[in-house]
Predict the 3D structure of the following.
Amino acid sequence: MKNTIGIFREGRSKRGEKRAAITPDDVKLITSWGHRVIVQSAIHPDSYEEKRIFKDTAYRKAGAKISEDLSPAELIFGLKELSIRRILPGKAYYFFSHTHKGQIKNRPMLKKLVELNSTVIDYELIANDKGERLITAFTYNAGYAGMVDSLWTLGKRLKILGISNPLEFVPQAVEGQDLQSVKDVIKKVGLKIEKEGTPKQIPPVIICFLGKGKTAFGSRVIFNLLPHQDISMNEVEDVFKNGSRNKLYALQIDIEDIYRLKREMINNLGEYENFNIRGKQHYYLEHPDYFESNLDKILPFITIIMNCVIWSNKYPRSITKQMTKKLWPTSETLKVIGDITCDPNGSIEFSKETWIDEPVYIYNPVTESVRNGFEGNGIAVMAVTNLPCEFSADASIQFSDDLKPFLQKIVQANYKGSLDESNLPEEIKRAVILWKGKFTNKYFHMIKYIS
């Protein structure tokens, strides 16, 4: 079919958001296949803010029409959640809906999409037949930006505490021109660490990465530009006491080390200890209520926690308020938490959403209070909810590369008949939450979120 394709400009409320789901190069491809493309202007008509990294002229040159009115389009590409007033009836929407976990803040949007007979395809749910996600560019970019911003946070925090340090020269990711420019700065900071060392007023810097997935991989890409050494759980205390100041230390752990069996589950310990790593992880996923955090063993020695583990409320938290309250009177080593996964009140119990223009707050473990900014007594938490925006061009191009194998079939699909008649690839069908206002079988349970 020859469809008309719409491309949203991201909303005003999404501060720092300049990514695009479809790049000008992709538009050129789509128009070459005979489809019409309408792109909303990068300049917001009310605020005159520039909301997209790619200029309108680039889209025009690729064959698109620039217009606020996307009503002629059969399918519309966006990225983040839609404001209710932007939802047009009967359209097929491709975006990150953030609804399938029952997220409360997006339930009104979901209800409106149902009422307006919308089709919803969620990028996060595009998967192969093994259930592995296929659109992961933003996950890697969240790791890149999250690591940069966590190093930047430590540099600023130490400076405020009166401690001069090499990390002062790390910029916030959004201040760099692009990913490569920021990498070049990080490499120069690494040379300063090798030459001058980390501050003597604090212990050797140990950064603990929670998780070994794509987000953690992205974080390590940045961290590995610095002089470093990987260590195990058993080595943490010795490095804390005797480690070098001319490098940083990385402790990267996964489920089998982040959590331990609860004391009342001690009868299961023999069985659990006999499992290999994969077996332990499977056991945890099957019986999350048997487990509790194991991080109290290492938090007294860690400078930065990088949280790269996706969480839902059926799993135990990795860092609790009670844990940090107990820790703080005897150890203030933990300076920064980089909560890349950013689940408010989630795995990090005191985490809350932050944004690029106000990215950090101080959590006081004793009073359980929060103060925005870098000043105050406690732990600096960086939990920016839209980290990939900080490398908008890089993230958009990588996202485009992920989507490209499916793009032609997506834009030529039939969105007027049934899902079976759509000719969409199976990978895309797995991501269809709504089809013409009706929940698909896979996601029918979500009806409870709008009732």
Q: What stands out?
A: The domain at 4-126+392-449 is CATH 3.40.50.720 (Rossmann fold).
